[in-house]
Amino acid sequence: MLAHSPPLPLVIDLDDENQDLTAEDETGIMIALEHRDRVQRICLRMPIPSLQKVIKAMDNQFSMLEYLCITPPAVHNAHLVLPATFRAPQLRHLSLNQFDSPIGSPLLTTAVNLVDLSLMWIPPATNLYPNHLFRALSLLTQLQNLTITFFSPVPNLEIERHMLRMPSTTHTTLPNLRYFSFGGVSAYLEAFLSHMNAPLLEKLSISFFNQLSFSVPHLLQFVTTTENLRASSVRFLFHHKAVTVFMYLSVTALRHTLSIYVGRDHLDWQVSSMVQIFNVLGPLAHYSPSWWISLLTIGAMHYRQSGTIKLTAPSGANFSHHSEMWRPSVFTVALSGTSHVV
To answer: Is residue 336 part of a domain?
Structure first.
């Protein structure tokens, strides 16, 4: 059929996470991939053995490809690799899950029209240091949405040592970036934000792995110099596996501008993490005098059904002065009638 049909664009879309490719499906996909100049969209979600077969056939240049999404069925360190010869100069949407060295791929040096870039669960064997990311992203000036998440990130200390040995002189400006999501350790995020400028950024989502200490001075600088990220309302969510803080432009806003997730499974550790982070971010209150911390009701999936968590200061609910707002001795966490002072 493909050999005798008009040269219309081709879409390869297969989403079956539980079944390997049948012989018929595999034959059909391989024939379609031979028509590289017609393939406009590829979206694959299937078991890893099948994915590896299809990815291997994606060599050379796909001149019409605009959308590429490849995802294994579960997060288990798959170590997928794109062929070294793969090119897609018209690519605008790229989502790769569990791929080795995706930033180092020659694909990104030619796909300069990317609008959406999502690199999820980068395997731990990938030595993707911030310097590598700076160089790759400096070419992607059309980028609007960026997601970077590590499966098991390089430790904070190794990142800090690398940046001392190989300081970067590359400063990346992403003039069209609206959304940035990061999952990893704080040292990597700090190195990244210290070399990044995104004047139109509207939403920043951060997920920190389980770590004992947090130092985020560059996060403070980045937020204070990015106008759309400033907030006047802060809400905390504590649950049995993590703590998340959401910041909003106003008390009545429905969408948050900044969120920080910390994976910790003990309440005292969760509060300690937030205190460390907001000891640094406290000066943000100076830019938003009306900043307040709201009472939050939690449900059955959290510590107790219909319980509440409330953060208060000994002097009451006046959090207008950041010098008094974020000191470790300030916080009292009340959880269903039991108080924890940090």
So the answer is: yes
For residues 159 and 129, the answer to whether their CB atoms sit within 8 Å is yes
CA distance 150 to 154: 9
pTM: 0.81
CA–CA separation, 177 and 137 (whole Å): 11
| 275 within domain boundaries | yes
Amino acid letter for position 305: Q
Number of structural domains, the chain? 1
Q: Tally Cβ neighbours within 10 Å of residue 132.
A: 15
Q: State pLDDT tens for residues 152-211.
A: 656 556 655 655 566 656 678 999 999 999 998 888 898 889 888 999 999 999 999 877
Say if 120 falls within a structural domain. no
Q: Mean pLDDT for the chain?
A: 77
Residues 6+ apart with CB under 8 A from 136: 103, 104, 108, 109
Domain residues for 257? Answer: 227-342
Q: With the C-alpha atoms ordered 278, 279, 284, 290, is the resulting torsion angle positive or negative? A: positive
CB-facing half-sphere around the CA of 156: CA atoms within 13 A: 13
* CA angle, residues 195, 201, 206, in degrees to nearest 5: 70
Cα 38 to the chain's mean position, in Å? Answer: 32
Greatest mean pLDDT among 137-146, 230-239, 244-253, 297-306 lies in 137-146
Confidence at residue 73, expressed as pLDDT on a 0 to 100 scale: 83
- Three-class SS state of 341: strand
